[in-house]
Amino acid sequence: MNSTRDTLEDKILDRSASVAILGLGYVGLPLATIFAEAGFNVIGVEPDSSKVEKLERGESYIQDVGSEQLAKLIQSGKLQATTDFSVLAEADAVSICVPTPLRKTGDPDLSFILVATDELAKYIHQGVVVVLESTTYPGTTREILLPKLTEASGLEVGKDFFLAFSPERVDPGRTDWTTYNTPKVIGGITPICSELASLWYQQALETVVPVSSAESAEMAKLLENTFRMINIGLVNEMAIMCDRLGLDVWEIIDAAATKPFGYMKFTPGPGLGGHCIPIDPLYLSWKLRALNYTARFIELASEINTGMPRYVVTKVQDALNEQMKPLKGSRVLVIGAAYKPDVDDIRESPALDIIGLLRQKGAEVDYHDPFIPEITHDDWILKSVPDVIEGASTADCVVIVTNHTAYDYPRILEEAQLIIDTRNALQVGGRSNSRVVKL
Ligand SMILES: NC(=O)c1ccc[n+]([C@@H]2O[C@H](COP(=O)([O-])OP(=O)(O)OC[C@H]3O[C@@H](n4cnc5c(N)ncnc54)[C@H](O)[C@@H]3O)[C@@H](O)[C@H]2O)c1
């Protein structure tokens, strides 16, 4: 028996293991909270000092974590936050939840993983279990993290320390499936790594699903997100094809969705958004390019999805044209800027492209979003107009980009002169008419 492993196992089982979470964002903060609630002492290491200060005051900046719940954990000392990486010297279990964006070239940007791993490598010691949660291409845990952690320390994986990958599946804003009850896939570098990482996560989460390797866990996440991206691409193309055929895509989707088996409903929209679906599949296609393979489904879906904001702008232009108005100089109100309903996350939101394109064409653009008071993007800064109904009544054209549930859609329909409804938020039956243009 390996005594390092036994000691760690005991600490996990009696919850005396100190947990460190690197990166307290949409993924890391809920995870830190759940481990603290399960009885572990948790410390979050977050380079953004403004986030640390908020946490110290017991204020949550993530919608899915309530301030009251957070304040209790902070006051009891179960959850702490710091900018100081040296606390990793005392950690028994470390989870890495840093961003994995794309570079401007469309290639993976692993810089956050590299910096976090370099910091961890300075403090790694015998008897630690490390789990990477950031979405990335298959092979990252073994090819990038493992050498950095072993070369610096001389430790042996599976004997002195334990390393695994476990993808986060959180869907922000959702209350039925949360970090706690969404099954968690875990794959280790060695079988013992899988076992220890699973044991740790089992203490705080409802269901853990072990797989045979870190690569399987990495690839499972990419399959999930690629599946969504491709199906959204398919249904976006359906919308374009239905438009050409003079058909109402929304009616057709609802009809198809009555099939009780073999069909899953996806809806079209103004383009992909968020930190996951538009980005993660491109990590996979990038990796495959290096192996001389073209991931054709991903590239095609990506092309269709990234073309949607321009398609929406063409719809605005055509609808205004019908009313003898040029887009240049027309007042356009974009309703909803977040990438999906009822969240305050604007990362990769198609609203950014739509607003930018409308501005480029000389439209006078305003937006309204109850969750996003101000947007700074490229060379423009906009503030949300105070009243959506007033804004809708004075605009030449309204574009519904995000269908937040709080909006009074019947009022918007009553007040606006012309509406491009990219989400079927108004539920206007039939095809587009002279006042409402559906996607
Ligand atoms: N947001 C989601 O819905 C979601 C869902 C599933 C998976 N993911 C994946 O989880 C990962 C994290 O995403 P997120 O949405 O939480 O990002 P985020 O930007 O909200 O949070 C990441 C945090 O890491 C911090 N950070 C940056 N560099 C760091 C470092 N070197 N050490 C420690 N912390 C550092 C940042 O300041 C930030 O607070 C990404 O790989 C993402 O693809 C996100």
Average the pLDDT over all residues and give the rounded result.
Answer: 96
Could you give the order of the helices and strands? HEHEHHEEHEHEEHEHHHHEHEEEHEHEE
Instruction: Give the cofactors and ligands.
Output: nicotinamide-adenine-dinucleotide
Q: What percentage of the residues does DSSP assign to strands (E)?
A: 5-15%
Strand order of the biggest β-sheet: 3-2-1-4-5-6-7-8
Largest sheet geometry: 8 strands, mixed
Parts with pLDDT < 50 across at least 5 consecutive residues: none
Please state the structural category: alpha/beta
So how many helices? 14
What's the gyration radius in Å? 24 Å
Question: What is the first-to-last residue Cα distance?
Answer: 63 Å
Helix % is 40-55%
- Describe the global form: elongated
Number of strands: 15
Structure description:
The radius of gyration is 24 Å and the shape is elongated. The model has no long low-confidence stretch (mean pLDDT 96). Helix 1 (3-13) runs parallel beside helix 7 (191-202), helix 5 (111-123) runs parallel beside helix 6 (140-153) and helix 11 crosses helix 12. The protein is 41% helix and 15% strand. The strands form three sheets. An eight-stranded mixed beta sheet has the order 3-2-1-4-5-6-7-8, sandwiched between helices. It has helices spanning 3-13, 28-37, 49-56, 67-76, 111-123, 140-153, 191-202, 214-245, 249-256, 280-289, 296-322, 350-360, 388-394, 409-415; strands spanning 18-22, 41-45, 79-82, 93-96, 128-132, 161-165, 184-188, 208-211, 331-335, 364-368, 374-377, 380-383, 397-400, 419-421, 436-438. It is of the alpha/beta class. Strand 7, helix 7 and strand 8 form a beta-alpha-beta unit. The structure holds nicotinamide-adenine-dinucleotide. Nicotinamide-adenine-dinucleotide binds at residues 22-28, 45-48, 51, 97-100, 112, 115-116, 133-135, 168-170, 172, 275-276.
